[in-house]
Design goal:
The chain has one domain. Helix content is about 30%, strand content about 35%. The protein has 3 helices and 9 strands. The N and C termini lie close together (about 10 Å).
């Protein structure tokens, strides 16, 4: 679970990183940047795969992250209120699904504690070790199944990564 938590932290960090909207390349690097962007765009198009799962289409990017909710998302784990699925990533350690919502970290933790306990989950040993107002990690267990939540909040948007295996 520690390796999975590290992967999730890196995943959340990577999603939050990027260039600022007001940054623009200088004039001499502009054509070089556009050429690189065109190459990357074409590479993404050729690497992208699209499959159909019922009415949901799922595409995979260069990192293996799929759009949409995975078909094996546990039915006893609720999705966050006002949540938008950003994508999912499956590895040998389990599946990570990233959501964004306007619900606060504190309210999400209260919601998941209540709902998951109603569904037979218990907080795992040491599973509630890093809880703060702007983020946290909490783990649950049910019938040898692990479900982890990683939360972080910035500018009124909360990112939630749910892991399961």
């Amino acid at each position: 679970m520690k390796n999975l938590s590290l992967i999730i932290l890196l995943f959340v960090f990577a999603i939050g990183c990027g260039t600022k909207k007001n940054e623009t390349p200088n004039q001499e690097n502009k054509s070089e940047t556009q050429t690189e962007e065109n190459k990357i765009s074409e590479q993404k198009k050729s690497d992208s795969t699209v499959t159909s799962q019922g009415t949901n289409e799922t595409s995979t990017n260069d990192l293996g992250m799929k759009t949409g909710l995975p078909s094996d998302f546990p039915s006893d784990v609720p999705q966050p209120k006002n949540g938008k699925v950003i994508g999912s990533l499956t590895s040998s350690e389990g599946t990570m699904v990233t959501f964004q919502t306007d619900v606060t970290v504190k309210d999400l933790i209260t919601f998941y504690k209540t709902e998951l306990q109603k569904n037979g989950f218990a907080i795992s040993d040491g599973g509630e070790s890093l809880i703060q107002d702007n983020g946290g990690i909490i783990g649950f267990v049910k019938d040898k199944r692990d479900v982890g939540l990683m939360l972080s909040s910035d500018n009124g948007i909360t990112s939630l990564v749910i892991t399961y295996k």
